[in-house]
Fold these 3 entries.
Entry 1:
Amino acid sequence: MSYNLFMNKKLYVISGCSGVGKGTVINEFMKRNSNDFVLSVSCTTRQPRQGEVDGVNYFFLTHDEFEKNIKEDKFLEHANFAGNYYGTKKKYINQKLDEGYNVVLEIDTQGAFQVKSKMPEAILIFIVPPSVEELEKRLRGRHTEDEATIQKRLAQVKIELERSQKYDYTVINDSVERAVEEIEKITKK
Ligand code: 5GP
């Protein structure tokens, strides 16, 4: 399958440790760049959090629906993260690139490397916290996960920080404003 990257439209993959505040950074980036950037909506089997809307935050699929899509090779990438499936549909990405948007994927490291191997021109950005202690504080302060899930996510952090070394860019989220500006500089290169 071919991926349409004409008109200099690019695919950006943004990852970060759980609770690093990447959602806030990405939302701010999207707000400021909405005329030519679009945020990809992923599929997942995890339960919606309060306020999340199907088709807006994620496409919420059952386990069976997700596995059917894997079998039918519908995903550009997919991964199992903290016990749930997450994935990006090929069709969705191609549609957005065809419409003339740069596409931002907010996905985990497993997915990022799958994208990079299929689309080497994709740009990988990893958002890191100023420190691991700060990250744990943010994760607990969110009050959206139970203790077991928090523990699973913290274990994942170590693995992810190691993998971040293979990204094209690392951005420290010490301030949302500064992190967004740094990402904007990267997209203008
Ligand atoms: P959350 O459950 O907090 O929304 O997301 C958990 C993790 O899954 C985050 O690291 C997020 O970046 C990642 N994620 C979200 N969508 C996708 C996707 O489509 N593919 C992959 N590989 N990871 C995803």
Entry 2:
Amino acid sequence: MNTDYLAFEGVDGSGKTSYIEALSSHLEKKSINFKIVREPGGSKLGEGIRDLLLSHEYTVEPLTEALLFSANRANLISEIIKPSIENGIKIISDRSAYSSVAYQGVGRGLGFDKIYEINDVAVDGYWPEKVILLDIDPEVSLKRQKINDRIGSSELDFFKKVREGYLQLSEKFNENFLVIDATLDLTDNLKTIYKWLELD
Ligand code: TYD
């Protein structure tokens, strides 16, 4: 595999879980040492922050939301991601700092560049090297999967902006991003992904 830190990204309901499961079995077969993490969450403190972020119990205004996500990320990176990579363990992440640029920067309208900068501080040099963007019209993905948490239950218009944010990211960082049409067949898409990761 040609990367130490791979992230899957996409709007809610884009199917990240199925891709991560398939990739895991493929990596196991190849005896590649890897660890799966998820954001928000991923560490003990992170799981606590995840509850604050996703529960309907709290009112979290956009800037606080962005800072909580980045605090979760700083902790996850220093506690798990950085030491794993230093020990030769590859990281497969369900979401990453790029989620914040799409969701908080573009979706919430805090600004693409501003949220990129905040996260540049939080990740301390550890942006994912490769990103697989599962691109899908949110109108389709939200029908596939009903999400009830505070962010997942947002309006369709919010997710449309998030998708635009992701597409902007994939253009700006086109050397790091592979954009997959998430409405196409999983097996065919996996072939494209394995080729891109030099895992075929
Ligand atoms: P989760 O249950 O992990 O959703 P999913 O299965 O779609 O990944 O909940 C994460 C929610 O938080 C999801 O709606 C995306 C959102 N999110 C942000 O808004 N900003 C971020 O930086 C991250 C990591 C997630």
Entry 3:
Amino acid sequence: MRIDVVSIFPEYLAPLELSLIGKARQDGLLDLSVHDLRDFTTDRHRTVDDTPYGGGAGMVMKPEPWAQALEAVAATGPGADASAGAPAQKPVLIVPSPAGERFTQAIAHELAEEDQLVFACGRYEGIDERVLEWAAEHFTVRPMSLGDYVLNGGEVAVLAMVEAVGRLLPGVVGNPESLVEESHSDGLLEYPVYTKPSTWRDREVPAVLLSGNHGKIAQWRRHEQYRRTAERRPDLLEAFDAGALPRADRTAFADLGYDVVDGRLRRRPEA
Ligand code: 6GU
């Protein structure tokens, strides 16, 4: 996969040289470049922002440097040589913004199938809206938000999204099994984990995990996932397919205050 990140703070993206993602780049699994938006300006001051039409606080990013930068990264991307036969996939342009669609594990999986991702890091009050309209001719444009809070710019969000997508690329995570049993892979939060010693500061590891009974362990872990999800993220249970749950799992949900109705979990009204 090819990834291009455009930012006025390219140094902010330095952590992408570390750890799993850095290793994936070294191994040639991920071709990632960071570009300085100011390199696509033409004035002496390398200006990237200006005052907003209509007034108001803050500054808006000017359209032309963005168009130059995005044209340059598209022209050198894997889909640029469309004349040479196979119809090229449009690169995906991800615009980090608190006003974007919520980024999820499902979207990370979608993006991991793409040939080229381009991240456009806005700062200030954002990028002139016409850039996103114009870019739709060359890219699949996806404004993306990490959640309902405000960051100063897209860079930190890009670190998160590149890591979430990059670890799904073939060969990046050493043991692909570890992708299966993690939070959100099945719409639930992960079960709690323990390691040695079995007693630590008077606290015992749950006995079932020492039992050697793999069926019991799997069931206990599943029920812990239900308990945690009900406690911390009950919103996730609305989408949970409870249609084919074994009796013991229905009982576990009943104990948490949920009944199964038409294959969905329904919170029992408080008595
Ligand atoms: Cl993706 N960008 C910015 N600037 N702020 C955010 C965000 C993204 N997600 C949540 N807050």
